[in-house]
Amino acid sequence: MRPPPSAVALALVTLGGAASAAQGAINAELGQRVGNATLGALVNNLGGTLLILVGLLVLPSMRTGLVALRRARLPWWSYLGGLGGAAIVLVAAYAVPVLGVAVFTIAQVAGNGFGGLASDRAGLAPVGRLPLSPPRVAGALLGMAAVALAQVGQPVGDLAVGVLLLTVAAGIGVALQTALNGRISAAGSAAAGVAVNFVVATPAVLLVAALAGAFTGPPVSWPTGWHLYLGGLLGVGIVASLVLGVRAAGVLRTGLALVGGQLAGALLLDVLLPDGPGARLPVLAGALLTLLAVLITGRRSRPAPPEAGLRVAPDAAPARDDRLVP
To answer: How confident is the model at residue 303 (pLDDT cuts 50, 70, 90)?
Structure first.
């Protein structure tokens, strides 16, 4: 299956980012109600895994994609993308109370930006190697500045260096998750890439929840609100949008589009929720600047002026690893 045009793919990723904002709010509320933050993440991943099992029964593309993966003989580390998603969900549960929402978000996006530049430069995603060009670096920096602007007025906690570095590392993990899942989908199918993500992530979340004592405390009283259990459904949609986006636009642009969607979704939640703070100008400005960063990172650098007596070939399109494309 060919990837969609980059504009379509990035629009889907932006919608996935809005879904991610809703997912974060749902997981946080569920964790707060049951008294354990890791249980919110666990319900999210178990719900996604259940949907994957249903997909195996009803989606031929998922089954044929998994068969194609077995024939592709990719390196073992290509299958570890789901660990990045598990890491950011688990780190958020512990880092946000320490750092505050603003610092956590900025650190996460900074890690995602650096990870996106490095992943694209190394050619981990199926679009092949993308240069470390001035527009791409400028777009990554603008995205970080936009997120910092959007966090004006949000609570700031203790600037614990260890937790801060852990959050940056988790942001890098999200970039690697996007790249590796895209690699899997290119060798198999988009549905197979989503399936592998949850198959890898869910055991990791289970293990961390067990080590954190989530299963040894007093019996949990589960809330009855049906919307609190939609995190898995949203998670499947988010991962699917990232799988499509990275195949068409690379890791950095996909990550920036996701962040833009997250800010837009957060703004919408602030307006629609009964106890929300209403529309906040910094969040709107941050969302628009992040989407501008997506456009900037898509521009190619102008070629350097040719030296005397030399001819310079026109810019070539980014290399693709055709071995990964079905």
So the answer is: very low
The number of angstroms, rounded, from the C-alpha of 178 to the middle of its chain's C-alpha atoms is 6
Query: Is 165 a domain residue?
Result: yes
- Say if residue 45's pLDDT is above 70: yes
Name the token pair of 22: 């809703």
Residue 316 lies in a domain: no
For residues 69 and 135, give the distance between their C-alpha atoms in angstroms, rounded to a whole number. Answer: 35
Instruction: Kindly report the pTM of this predicted structure.
Output: 0.83
How many whole angstroms from its chain centre is CA 221? 31
pLDDT at 19 over 70: yes
Residue 220 lies in a domain: no
Helix (H) or strand (E) segment spanning residue 10: helix 6-34
88: domain range?
6-214+228-300
Q: Is 100 left (phi over 0), alpha (psi -120 to 50) or beta?
A: left
CB-based contacts of 172: which residues, under 8 Å, 6+ apart? 111, 112, 114, 115, 118
